[in-house]
Design goal:
The complex is a heterotrimer of chains A (about 475), B (about 160) and C (about 130).
Chain A (H helix, E strand, L loop, with lengths): L9 H18 L9 H18 L5 E3 L3 E3 L1 H28 L3 H20 L3 H19 L6 H32 L4 H10 L6 H17 L8 H8 L2 H26 L4 H24 L4 H21 L3 H28 L15 H4 L1 H15 L5 H15 L3 H27 L13 H19 L2 H12 L3
Antiparallel strand pairs in A: 1-2
Chain B lengths: L2 H22 L3 H21 L3 H30 L10 H21 L13 H10 L3 H22 L4
Helix pairs in contact in B: 1-2, 2-3
Chain C lengths: L4 H24 L6 H4 L18 H25 L1 H28 L7 H13 L1
Helix pairs in contact in C: 3-4
Classes of the chains: A mainly alpha (about 475), B mainly alpha (about 160), C mainly alpha (about 130).
Amino acid sequence: MFSSGIDAVVPMLCVTLAALAVMGAEAFRARGEQLPLGGLGVVGLVGAAISAVLLWNRNAVSFGVVVADNFGLFVTLVLLLVALLTIMFSSTVVRRDGLPAGEYYALVLFATAGMIMMATANDLLVVFIALEILSIAVYVLTGIRRDDSRAIEAAFKYFLLGAFSSAFFLYGIAFTYGLAGSTRLDRVGTYMAAQSMSGNPLILVALGLLLVGFAFKISAVPFHMWTPDAYEGAPAVVTGFMSTGVKAAAFAAFARVFLSVFEPFSGEWAPLVWLLAAATMILGTVVGVAQSNLKRMLAYSSIAHGGYLLVGLVAANQVGKAAILFYLLAYAVTNLAAFGVIALLGTREAANDELRDYAGLWHTRPALAALMTVCLLSLGGLPPTAGFIGKWYIFSAAVSAGYYGLAVIGVLTSVVSVFFYLRVVVMMYMTDRPAAIAPPPVSAVAMAALVASIAAIIALGILPTPVLDFAAQSIATIF
Amino acid sequence: MTGDVLAFWGLALLLVGSALAVVLSKNLFHAVLWLALALTGTAGVFLLLEAEFLAAIQLLLYAGGIVTIVVFAIVVTERLVGERISQTSRRIAGGAVVAAALLGLIVSAIVERPLAPAEPSIGADLTRTIGELVQTRFVLPFELLAVLMLAALMGAVYFARPDD
Amino acid sequence: MDGWLGVIIMIALGVGFAAVMIGLSLLLGPHNPTPEKLAPYECGMPAVGSARERHSVKFYLVAMIFLLFDIEVAFLYPWAVALRDLGWAGFVQLVTFFLILSVGYVYVWRKGVLDWGPAARAGRHAARRAA
């Protein structure tokens, strides 16, 4: 099991080196000088993607604590895509809003490195440190507009509750270590398998604490309190980044810990996750309907989407596990593109993220309106988009595993959610724009990122089979 | 009752008392001083467990470093805000109920099935064992810590740096 | 707990001495409070002042940076104790750790966080005017 090579950490290493390079370049940047720091980041991300592809099917293990199995690599590729799209959208936003480019890109890359580490970690200690790296970077990114008191408040709330949840997580790790005598996931898994009949209540305590820690990070109800404020206060690109990247990384670690290590105790945790999933889907949808701010609405929508992912986790059959991976990809691309549109419509003075700002968008910015429509349809789970296929597989997994209740709740909340997504679409097309303020021009890079995401959403919606096979292959190796 | 047990209960009393004082005292400076006492008490627990290195680190970094930073943070914030800040914890009763429930849950679990009482066998010198483990089994988390501290440093400097 | 008796006696002496001194001064000293005497800091900068003065934030930053490099040193100690067994691998790993953190040091330095005196501030003002 132990190999001294560093193969498995190469993707994370590429991203970290890019982050260090950006930080160094920023340090030596002359005042007023513009450096292609985003491009530097893209180089690191592409290097990481290439190494991740080369590692496919090799199950490389490094230092005994990182395992680059296909599951981890699939999530790694999703995370790299998220980071790449984020940087492409950011190129416009950073210049427009006068954000500090060096710090911004370095933190995005640090966060990405932490996410990749979290997705491939095979040791609870590494999961924790990776979680802290990505969390700290994202806290700062949330408040990157430090003159904006709303952004600072959002960052502060996120930081306090995040630190709180980290404490829960760490406490859970401590109990797990106390019981199993190791933090290595494979050793803990062996211990748990041997103890599955013992009914040791301490195992349940450890499990519960870890569950709370994860639930905070994926903003499952009732641990979602920080989400709407943090998502609304952060710049829209950052919201897109954290609502997809953080969630994907946390879900990967969640699935790895609960579906493999704590699998013998699924009888204990599955009902809890069932409740979390149901509450998350219902609250995210119901409260989302009442929002008048598009960013806040999408914040609740991303809470609800976390609920759908939890359904896949409860229905942990083969279909369910593959469906989680597919859904992560579909959700990441869709949500990122939606927040990308919001970010591109803002100006330095006004965020333009109220619902009424979208009235008549079709008349002023037809391209952006059309792209936003596709995103919203995909978020609502309408064909022929990636969101539809993702929900289809999640719910069919739930049905085949016998969780009819969850499937019904999922379908009903999806139907309700279509209402609030369509409300935005109707506003964009059916109303004339009152006193239209022409939004700023969109850079070619950002537009290319948008078009590519939309193409991916439709492609995944029409031809999902290759990616689904890929996802099924990924989970076959470990669970 | 041996000396160890006596010392443990003394420390436990000190820890719980000072931790409660941290959350309950109105004056933030007093809270910080109680925090320093709580962190020092934790060092005492490490000493009881014969982890001298950890105890020293606990005193140096937590009771020394962290407390200093908190004091600085309070002073700087009070200067920026222009008034004394006091602790405004609310819903203390609710919090106490939740904390007591969690405590009851964990204690009842430990009482029902105690953790292995045997101390893990560690070679002659704990500090040396730590040094070896950090550089072998835990070398990746160790290097990751540097990345973590770097990200934290950057964030702190970004927020605290005066406008230029 | 062998060998700790000396430490315990030392702690007892230290705490006892401080307690006796405080107790004596409470009992014997004149009691005549003024606002200055009741301030958290009797000397140094006033605890409450104008919000326009941002310079004090530097104290906080330096303390933070100090703590980070303090942690770095804390890892140095067990490494040094186990130096002989770890050999070159341990050395390379430690240097890597230091190199990563040195990026942070360079960043902090170049960003002027460590600049302190009026000369440094004047330099920054000049640079701003030039930009």
